TrEMBL record:
Residues 383-708 form the Peptidase M14 domain. Keywords: Hydrolase, Metalloprotease, Protease, Signal, Zinc. Residues 1-32 form the signal peptide. InterPro entries: GH29D-like_dom, Peptidase_M14. This is M14 family metallopeptidase. Its cofactor is Zn(2+).
Amino acid sequence: MRSSLDGRRARRVAAALALPLALTLSALPALAEPSPSPGDVVPDRQSTTAQNGVALMRIVVPDQADVDRLNAMGVDLAEYKKPLDNGIEVHAVLSPEEAQSLRDQGFDVQGAISDQTDYAENQVERSQAMRSAAAATAETDTLTPLRAEWFTSLDDQRFLSVEVKSSATDAQTVLTVTWDSGPGTAPDSGGTAAMSRFTDAGQYMYHRFNSPLSVTQAPTKVTVTSNRGGSVTIPVTKWLGAARKAPGKHYVADFVDHYMDPTEVTDRISSLAREFPKISEIVDLPYKTNGYRRAAQAQFGTVAASTFYVSSKAYGHEGGNDISVALTKPEAASSALGVTVTGKDVVVALATDASGAVTSTARQVVDALNGDAAASALLAAGTYRGNAGTGQVAATPATRLTDNLKAPATVSREPFQMKALRVGKRRDGSKAGVFLYCQEHAREWVTPLTCVETAERLLRNYARDADTRKLVDDLDIFIVPTVNPDGAHYSFYDYNMQRRNMTNHCAVNLADPAARNSWGVDLNRNFSVGSVFDGYSGASTSCTSDTFAGPSELSEPEAKNEVWLTEKYPNIKFAMNTHSYGGYFMWPPGAYKAAGRELLPRVDYGTESFFWSASSHILSAVQTWRGTAIWPGRTGPVPDVLYSAAGNSADEHWYNKGIIGWDFEVGADVYNPETKRFQAVGFQPAFTEGHEEAMEFSAGQIAILEVARAFSSDRNAPKSELKVTARTAGSTSFTFTIDEPANVYYTLDGSRPTLSSPKLTAAGMREGAQQITIDATTEVHWFAADIAGNNEKNYKPDGNGKNYNKARVVVGDAR
């Protein structure tokens, strides 16, 4: 879900969608009571002439006949119908009285999709937008170029990517791009196209193409014009493909030939450590997972009010799967409700009235089971999703409980021992550490292959490739190929779209068997920086949400293991979190608060420049395998190119430990030259595609190691210059240029610059260095410091030296 919803609306939508849909299981109930007869009606809406309380509601019905019946009854149905496993979902505009009447007639009326609050908010937003648009038409806008690049991808197809920011932020502003077809050609000879307006959290960010444009020739310039009158011409540069040394001729690759579950992956890295003991070892992470295991369950009933379920106290593999429950009807009339237990067989004798008919309700059976000492030692019972359970139950033959887990016996049901493969010739903490980790999200099957491929390349090429040997000799590398082993096992064998781990934090009203695919914690939302508990967007506190952040920060052992590794080995300075899919290359900050789009603090200008500089090397390495180019528009800080991800691990490592961390989303869209469209590859593409993704992004991981090694051996001081950028009669603007990614510390009062002095910042998102404007002639003192710790001219800011840079910037007649 996009993060543009405000918090209140997001909570309403989350509440409306929180209950998982019933799954196709034996003895699971339909979620609607028997349908009303054709004569049933709903109340008139005259009581709500002010529209108070009217909302768009979800209704789930068993079949089309009930849809037709709702229509015949005069229910205000939207033009929406969606097939479900348990029936059909339709949407209706209902007052509270109408909704209650339909529920009284047995219809399953669920949560609100939207209500009058949305209407009021939309009207306010519309008024504000119209005022902004009216104001914007009064003056010519200013266009700020952010990026203009061409690149090649798969089969040398050329593409154009342009990003421009207008000072007119309203939706009426239209930017159009024209481009040439190479040196010396007409400015519009290459083509023309309108740009899309990119917004996030309701705020305008900039204009761009939704997808890079296919071009026949590489353009040299683009001209962007606005319907507000603004215009700017931008030189086009080449994106990626910078010269990069190819691996040595004896370099070997391609070590994965199928998708692997976490047991296979963990066995694989353990085997590598045994095979290469001189340059690798296994680190057992201290927090074992909850395990690929669940309580055994059974559900009885077909209508919500008469449905209940039971869950074993022991996990299924520990005996829960051996329990059975039967509901019997006594022969005698006026029998009392009773429970008997023989071994692990539980029998509930239902109560009958004087005529011999069953009178026991779901609630009464639940209370009887929970109140019987022998039965409650084996299991716990509950009504269906908090229903009052007033419906009568029916006799049911003995039903054996099951944990419903389908993995083979090779997959242990016990808590999983997570492992890291540590690679390095000198593993004593003296070398710069790099943390590569994959599969935080269970359904992302390509990512562990990427980590395994990287491990294989490092170890098997050490003796034969000089460049690999340098990496292993000069770095301390930690590889965790599967951060989410329980969830990944579940994804492989039970429910392929599982994103989270398997730990069920839901209360009893959401713990029935039909909800089993909706349990678990999104591990990449469970960390302690910028979390949902701190008010940041992009995670949920609903236990059935796919972005459930857990009951608290760092509640999950898998997340604790990541933090432990960075604390145990403080030499870790770099990290890469590999996800799928979409083809992204991102870095912190990763989260914001929706109100005002309040970001976590952006990294400083020098670090941001380092991220961009490194991206060229890393993404060029990805491209070397089969030509895949990660788009410029999918490169940058997480919220700038994707969305807010509250409580993610990269933010945890950067803000708490200063670890320079990236995020890969492997699986870039594939361009189809016949349809001229990019096609998404999904979480689990055919292995032929998954294999290629693992190969190319393993090359990217190797390039990250190269960046880390270069960083750790960097002894070169940066060089900077002051550059005047604009003059008027009463002011002068200037900035600083630097020959490598670095920060500039400066003073304007003639004092000696230190690390506490003002620091050059970015002008704005993706806009380059800030412009400093003065209104009087000023003596500027400054020095540059790169993020490896090298100071320009070896200047010591905490000392007394005077070897900092000095320049006199004049204003007006002082020239």
